[in-house]
Amino acid sequence: DTAVSQTPKYLVTQMGNDKSIKCEQNLGHDTMYWYKQDSKKFLKIMFSYNNKELIINETVPNRFSPKSPDKAHLNLHINSLELGDSAVYFCASSPLPPIYGYTFGSGTRLTVV
Amino acid sequence: DQQVKQNSPSLSVQEGRISILNCDYTNSMFDYFLWYKKYPAEGPTFLISISSIKDKNEDGRFTVFLNKSAKHLSLHIVPSQPGDSAVYFCAASVTSGTYKYIFGTGTRLKVLA
Description:
- The complex is a heterodimer.
- By secondary structure, chain A is mainly beta.
- Chain A is built from no helices and eleven strands.
- In chain A, a hairpin with a 2-residue loop joins β5 and β6.
- The mean pLDDT of chain A is 92.
- Chain B contains no helices and eleven strands.
- In chain B, strands 2, 4, 5, 9, 10 and 11 form a six-stranded mixed sheet that branches.
- At the A-B interface, β5, β9 and β10 of A face β4, β5, β9 and β10 of B.
């Protein structure tokens, strides 16, 4: 019974396409996040939602749009994919305050060709 | 601007010996720190935390030390076991507002049997 599940696990797509990554958590947490791990292994926060409200919005191209239909789901939609978007995207959730950090999903490896 | 740095990308240690993983940070406002462990094709999992009001926290084989004046923390694993082989990330946050964790780039630990 996976706590934070992301789909798909792998995604290969062509430049210019639009794609979505879905995330669901069954932990009852109020806050969800998207992190990006690039080729240099930096884990950078992109967005955070608390009870469906956007609370963190880092400097991310507006081709990336998060959507939280309810507090258990946080999806990431990416328009007009570029080569530089290739990375591993991790969804995570936590209560507030996250004194035990976040619970991460297993990641979605996005490859743009 | 990389606020959390792990300058050793990899470390090899013999089974039974001590593993010491290091992390430096630049933002003096950080007051809460975590270590995560990550296996391939999985998301990072929480390992141990420390608040800036402490200089040491211990949990079984894992001990985290914090030196605020040096802006340095370290994770000690004693004794190291082959199952400890993974990538270890440190992360830091300011415990107010959005609790955004900033991650280091990770250190790959290999414990040799």
